[in-house]
Design a protein that fits this description.
By secondary structure, the chain is α/β, with parallel strands linked by helices. It contains 10 helices and 13 strands. It has helices at residues 22-28, 33-39, 55-69, 94-102, 118-131, 207-211, 221-242, 260-270, 281-284, 291-299, and strands at residues 5-14, 19-21, 44-46, 79-83, 108-112, 138-145, 163-173, 178-186, 194-196, 217-219, 252-255, 308-315, 319-326. Helix 4 (94-102) links the parallel strand 4 (79-83) and strand 5. Helix 3 crosses helix 4 (94-102) and helix 7 (221-242) runs parallel beside helix 8. The chain starts with a strand and ends in an 11-residue tail after the last strand. The mean pLDDT is 97. It binds oxa(dethia)-CoA. Oxa(dethia)-CoA is lined by residues 31, 35, 39-40, 116, 155-156, 159-160, 221-222, 224-225, 228, 258-259, 262, 286, 314-315.
Length: 337
């Protein structure tokens, strides 16, 4: 077996400037800052509101920052995997647009769809490509313009989501670092509880689908909440146990930023203090595939080489999982620039 592993060597991110806060939302639907803060924990979210800009705009900015921060020549990138549920177009892939805009000319690139778990799936896929020995510089991106698929007349979903993008550079290492273990799941049980009804091949777009708001996220929140808590907690416990990661050995958990109550429930189950849970949901809401890397981008300065981190996510499908990562480098206060 090869002794090459895949390590994260840099993070880039981008969020749009426009801030939609809870008071703004209270003017759009029957809700309040108090309800949203107690039930979800989101104060504000970023929205890409310039006409004509889609997910690739945010993704390409995140990748541009990543290339600059890591001093990477775009022509040396071998592979780009972009996770999103809100591609610019049904085709071509958003990844192909991001490559073109950043001068990434020697890579193959594709989109990956696993809803809010997409970045976990991308990380495990990238690690396998790198371990094969054929790919040396792999960029994985999580990017979603959730505002394009959120119904701003539906108070049950509109407070949750926001827009953003972030990216990791992954490279080979022979040190004891990187993606150590992964446990990913898909069960298909989630379709009735979390989906978009129209716009796909089952129910193509029509005046009827538009009039009836069928192009927006439908979520049965309580059911999804229950599955999210139990599945993420179980898989985190499983990956911690089989890697002998007792609670004192876990430096950070990077949880999907879907609901602060879900994050607290995972911390409880792992018997970890809340300050080991990396959190930025208050400012960005749930940015779907961008949630995990944006959380790292925001907290990068705290991270140290060799830190034991568990990434975990849950999303439509259902899809979920956990990845145990030994972090690759020391963060610094200037990392975000
Ligand atoms: O990222 C993919 C995975 N997604 C998730 O992990 C999301 C999981 N689900 C959740 O985070 C939560 O279920 C929600 C935040 C979506 C909803 O919170 P909840 O505590 O589960 O609320 P609920 O749906 O059980 O609704 C409770 C009450 C209802 O009123 P009644 O029927 O009890 O009178 C709702 O109509 O809260 C009402 N409600 C609201 N009230 C004020 C629902 N949305 C709002 C709102 N403002 N925005």
């Amino acid at each position: 077996m090869s002794n090459i592993n895949a390590v994260v060597t840099g993070v880039g991110g981008f969020v749009p400037d426009y801030i939609l806060n809870n008071d703004d939302l209270s003017k759009m639907v029957d809700t309040s800052d108090e309800w949203i803060m107690t039930r979800i924990g989101v104060k504000e979210r970023r929205i890409l509101n310039e006409e004509g800009l889609g997910t690739s705009y945010m993704a390409r900015k995140a990748v541009k920052q990543l290339l600059q921060k890591t001093n990477t020549n775009p022509e040396e990138v071998d592979l780009v995997i972009l996770s999103t549920s809100t591609p610019d177009y049904a085709f071509p892939s958003t990844a192909s647009i991001v490559c073109k805009k950043n001068g990434i000319t020697n890579a193959f690139a594709f989109d990956m769809q696993a809803a809010c778990s997409g970045f976990l799936y991308a990380m495990e896929t990238a690690a396998s490509f790198i371990r094969s020995g054929r790919y040396k510089k792999v960029i994985i991106v999580g990017a979603d313009k959730m505002s394009a698929i959120v119904d701003y007349t539906d108070r049950a979903t509109c407070p949750i989501f926001g827009d953003g993008a972030a990216a990791f550079l992954m490279e080979p290492t022979t040190e004891e670092l990187g993606v150590i273990d992964a446990q990913l799941h898909t069960d298909g049980k989630g379709l009735p509880f979390l989906h978009i009804k129209a716009g796909g091949s089952v129910c193509p777009s029509s005046p009827f689908t538009v009039e009836n708001h069928l192009h927006y996220v439908y979520q049965e929140g309580r059911t999804v909440f229950r599955y999210a808590v139990s599945n993420m907690s179980d898989v985190c416990v499983e990956i911690a146990n089989r890697n002998e990661l007792s609670k004192d050995k876990i430096d950070w958990v990077v949880p999907h930023q879907a609901n602060l109550r879900i994050i607290s429930a995972i911390a409880n189950r792992l018997e970890l203090p809340e300050d080991k849970m990396l959190v930025n949901i208050g400012h960005y809401g749930n940015t779907s595939a961008a949630s995990l890397p944006l959380c790292v981008w925001d907290n990068e300065a705290k991270l140290k080489k060799g830190d034991n981190m568990i990434f975990t996510a849950f999303g439509a499908g259902f899809t979920w999982g956990a990845i145990y990562v030994k972090w690759g480098y020391d963060g610094s206060p200037t990392n975000k620039e």
